[in-house]
Amino acid sequence: MLAIVLLLALPFCTAESASSYAGSTVADSYPPPGATNTAVDTYFPDASQVGYAGPTPTGAEPAAIVTAVPFSKVEGVFPLSRPNSADDADTTFNVMRQWGNFAPMYSVDSFGLLDASPVIPEGCGINAVHLLMRHGARYPASDEPEPSQFASKIHAAASKKGFSVTGNLEFLATWTYKLGANNLTPYGRESLFSNGVAFRYRYGKLLNAFTDLPVFRTTSQDRMLDSALNFAAGFFELRTYETDYHQEIIIEKINFNNTLAPFQVCPNANSDDIGNYGDTKTSEWADIYLQDARRRLQPMIQGLNLTIDLLIDMQELCAFETVALGYSKFCDLFTEEEWEGYEYYVDLDFWYSCGPGNPTAAAQGLGYVQELVSRLTHTPINVWNSSTNSTLDSSNITFPLNQPIYVDFTHDVVLASVATALNFTSLAATGPLPADHIPPHRSYISSQIAPFSGQLVAQVLSCPASEEPTHIRFLLNDGVMPLTGIHGCTEDPNGLCALPSFISGMHERIGQIDFAHDCFANYTMPDPDNIMDGRCPR
């Protein structure tokens, strides 16, 4: 009798029938209609009308990149909630760092130079800095329909009889799709503002060398412009930033030359068989690493077949919901091993679609490299054989050559392509990525190359400190990059390369890259694809 009572007292795991709105799309709009009543504006005068600001003397510009030891790393993601994995086996395991290009930027410890620091080497001086930065965290892009398609399939299944969820998937019974498209999330805006503040702390002293207002560049895409403006508001000052610099906005559209969006003038970069070759490799790998997840999760949902593609959508939703809403229940559906599998899934895509393994990658990065050399040598570009814009880059107004600080905003795939064009061979050190297993100690990790708010910094230095620059080195997401893949640059524990040697090596690299052929010629991908320098084999 006691056993029967105990049995009746046990909770039963029953399937949850879905609500009729499960998987539907929810969108909010602010400010509310009618709230912008200009008739009351006179009640809220701005600061210039109110006055009484108090004394505002300025202090000296900071130069933390010279003086700050130890270096302040990017490690947190406040105010986002850090997700757990399904097994949560290792409390130090960071799910967010397995999101590839959807990961928030974090400081990379090393690309092989174990003792190098982002703080400039002792005895050196900072003469100039070049920043190439990816936009901040965003909603899914228009060419990433998978998360919204997952929602549509849930909604369609929930509208029919026989759909139910239980266990870890029970939340889908009332889950709705709350993501926008293309533009920055609140965290994306905050990240860019904070990065602007951080850049001022590190390189603010270089502002003293300006004789005119800086020119910063971005593209016309909404998230690109918002990233640039949020960064500028942090770097300068919220109330004055619009008059503290010039914001150049370059049209981002097919057939418009733009080194910050070079794929728009490289047809092969947009073709399924060349530009999207990574999709072939990722499909092979997904069929391997997600089989256990499929067997584990399918019994928890009736009325919908959890395909491998849907499971990838769920992993992407974990990332997108977290950076948009602060938290996602999709994250702890997958084990640490499955999250490592997802990171590698993205690595494969980047390597074979816009990295060292794609024949258009170097060609896409070529234009920015040409601009970098032009800025370093203070010499106008006179050959137009890439994505450079002859109208803008021929003008010393829109393309000045005498700035101590350069700031450009771009996309994830462009960061990867520029790293390839610069011939950062340490990223390709372990060779082409296999599609059937994760190689140990691989050198190419997409979250370390092109995360949200990812950044490539070129520090132009004088060693010893003087007015004339003598060396250059690169930081990729705070990790010091070895430059031994560039002809003339020798091994150096701090990643330094003599500036004349670097410029000579870049001229050689530029001469090797055939933009016209790699972007426009009719060719097929080599099989096997053993490309490691981002150029089409000839």
Notes on the protein architecture:
The longest helix is centred in the middle third of the chain and has 18 residues, at 186-203. The strands form 3 sheets. Strands 2, 7, 8, 9, 10 and 11 form a 6-stranded mixed sheet that branches. This protein has a 3-stranded antiparallel sheet with strand order 1-3-6, with no helix packed on it. Helices cover 33% and strands 9% of the residues. It is globular and about 75 Å long. It has helices spanning 2-9, 47-50, 64-67, 146-158, 186-203, 222-235, 241-244, 278-289, 291-297, 308-325, 336-353, 361-377, 390-393, 412-421, 446-449, 499-512, 515-520, and strands spanning 16-17, 125-134, 164-165, 215-219, 246-250, 301-302, 405-410, 455-462, 471-476, 479-480, 497-498. By secondary structure, the protein is an alpha+beta fold. The model is unreliable at 1-12 (pLDDT under 50).
